[in-house]
């Protein structure tokens, strides 16, 4: 193990070996329960609104599938985003449309978003790129209440808006990545929060089939 290397922001050798030991000792269920308890306390939401995945992209796919959209329905994503996110959207069968970002904060340009919306636009996935909060979610939800907003908080665990709101609690749903390079990591994995309780029953059905 002397030459076992990790990237920055990843698990230490000790953490990696401890994780392997936990698996061998059949502690997985106990650790999942503890993880859900910690997330419940941190985000101050009920545990039944928190879902764990093996990757953030799988959370996105499952959530969009639970919406029962048609092939004609559009999902808007940032023009500057990770390809695994756009691939997850494409696998759902929905149309995908890109919205350009603004120059300074690297997040969606809200005026360009308005110009891209059509009657078939159903979902908007908004990233908090580099952990910098996108400040326009409440404005979008007020102006377009029919639009389902998913926060891409892969880089933003712990980030807060200017009003002190935690990223991940602003949209109808949000997802976090726990991959090696992210602010908080379990090696691999993802978290989905469902903030809009009206969407919870259908998502729960989808989740239970996995």
Description:
- The chain is α/β, with parallel strands linked by helices and 210 residues long.
- It has seven helices and seven strands, in the order H-H-E-H-E-H-E-H-E-H-E-E-E-H.
- The chain has a seven-stranded mixed β-sheet with strand order 1-7-6-5-4-2-3, with helices on both faces.
- Helix 4 links the parallel strand 2 and strand 3.
- Helix 3 packs parallel to helix 4 and helix 3 crosses helix 7.
- The protein is globular.
- The N terminus is likely disordered.
Strand proportion, as a percent range, falls in 15-25%
Q: Mean pLDDT, rounded to whole units?
A: 90
Helix content: 25-40%
Name the helix and strand elements from N-terminus to C-terminus, one letter apiece.
HHEHEHEHEHEEEH
Q: Strand order within the widest sheet?
A: 1-7-6-5-4-2-3
Shape: globular
Largest beta-sheet characterization: 7 strands, mixed
Rg from alpha-carbon coordinates: 18 Å
Q: Which class do the helix and strand fractions yield?
A: alpha/beta
Uncertain regions: pLDDT < 50 for 5+ in a row?
Answer: 1-9
Secondary structure tally: strands:
7
The helix count comes to: 7
Distance between the termini: 35 Å
List the main descriptive attributes of the protein structure presented here.
single chain, 210 residues, alpha/beta, seven-stranded mixed sheet, 7 helices, 17% strand, disordered N terminus
Write the layout of secondary structure elements.
Elements: H1 13-24, H2 28-43, E1 50-53, H3 56-66, E2 74-78, H4 83-91, E3 95-99, H5 110-116, E4 121-127, H6 137-143, E5 148-152, E6 173-177, E7 190-194, H7 200-208
Parallel strand pairs: 2-3, 2-4, 4-5, 5-6
Antiparallel strand pairs: 1-7, 6-7
Helix pairs in contact: 3-4, 3-7
């Amino acid at each position: 193990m002397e030459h076992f290397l990790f990237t920055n922001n990843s698990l230490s050798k000790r953490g990696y070996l401890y994780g392997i030991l936990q698996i061998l000792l059949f502690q997985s269920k106990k650790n999942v329960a503890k993880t859900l308890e910690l997330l419940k306390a941190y985000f101050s939401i009920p545990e039944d609104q928190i879902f764990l995945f093996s990757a953030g992209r799988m959370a996105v796919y499952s959530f969009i599938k639970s919406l029962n959209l048609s092939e004609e329905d559009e999902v808007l994503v940032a023009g500057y985003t990770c390809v695994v996110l756009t691939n997850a959207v494409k696998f759902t069968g929905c149309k995908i449309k890109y919205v350009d970002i603004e120059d300074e904060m690297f997040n969606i340009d809200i005026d360009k978003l308005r110009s891209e919306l059509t009657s078939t636009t159903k979902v908007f996935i908004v990233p908090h790129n580099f952990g910098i909060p996108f400040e326009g979610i409440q404005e979008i939800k007020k102006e377009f209440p029919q639009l389902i907003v998913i926060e891409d908080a892969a880089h933003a665990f712990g980030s807060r808006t200017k009003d002190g709101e935690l990223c991940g609690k602003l949209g109808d749903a949000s997802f976090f990545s726990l991959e090696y390079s992210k602010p908080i990591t379990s090696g691999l994995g993802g978290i989905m929060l469902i903030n809009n309780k009206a969407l919870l029953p259908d998502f729960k059905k989808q989740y239970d089939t996995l």
